[in-house]
Amino acid sequence: MVFGNIHGVCNASLGLGLGYNKEQETCSQSDNLHEKKKPSLKYDHLVPCLTLGLPEETFQSVTKIDRDVHRQASSLSPVSSFSNSSVKKERESCYGEEVDAERVSSRACDDDEEASPRKKLRLSKEQSIILEDSFKEHSTLNPKQKQALAEQLNLRPRQVEVWFQNRRARTKLKQTEVDCELLKKCCETLTEENKRLQKELQELKSLKLAGPLYMQLPAATLTMCPSCEKIGSGGGGGGSSASTFSIVGTRPPFYDPITHQSTPC
DNA sequence: GACATATATGTGTTTACATCA
DNA sequence: TCTGATGTAAACACATATATG
């Protein structure tokens, strides 16, 4: 998510985005058939980040999901799941017996599932707890885990799969809401920052009109660039616009409202 | 009865893999 | 043997339907 040029500070754009720590997640799965990584879409480690800089520096948002691992898992799996709807329909009609058998074993307390084909399952508290715990461990399941959970909970693998899908959706929704709030706050902060910068720019322009800036400022007001560690002379050999010094007492131009750190020139 | 939530279903996309020319 | 095209299966996200409290 990138919001470029929200407030348009001169030629630089403001990038307002959500980032995430790319910390390596440890694979908690016991049956590491396929060194499964968690999908990067997972929001648990998203950390909001604001960038104030050139467009090319704007943050690249959540990367494409690494699906490879799931494919590998699926290809290795002895368990067939009816995830593809068309296939599912076909198979349900062809293998009705199998499906019915699954239904019968799906829930101990559902005696008359034949009566209502879409009677909604209500998970018991224990089942929910186990599923939640499992979800905390890993938000996606490989076929083996799915099967094991299904057996443990006396549910169909499909039900476990659906529960995880819906659970991921809920997590994402909640995270989106949190992110939205965060972005609003960031936006407000940046708006204020933009105002301040505009004001500062006006002041600098007015100073420049009156003469070279460095001639007007006491030496004590010049600071060293944290990046190149030199005091820029501004209008020396290059362009005066690339000045590397800033005025003490004001925040540096590229101020990160989140980290409260300035970006070096 | 309206509403929120949980569960289920349908659809489209992506990817790995197998097969074939 | 290598390579690109093609088909298939599996898993997912997402939207939506529907049962339930």
Automatic annotation (TrEMBL):
It is found in: Nucleus. Keywords: Coiled coil, DNA-binding, Homeobox, Nucleus, Transcription, Transcription regulation. Residues 180-210 form a coiled coil. GO terms for cellular component: nucleus. Residues 116-175 bind DNA. InterPro entries: HD, HD-ZIP_Homeobox_LZ_Class_II, Homeobox_CS, Homeodomain-like_sf, Leu_zip_homeo. Its main location: nucleus. The keyword NAD does not apply. Residues 114-174 form the Homeobox domain. Pfam families: HALZ, Homeodomain. One of its GO terms (molecular function) is sequence-specific DNA binding. Belongs to the HD-ZIP homeobox family. Class II subfamily. This is Homeobox domain-containing protein.
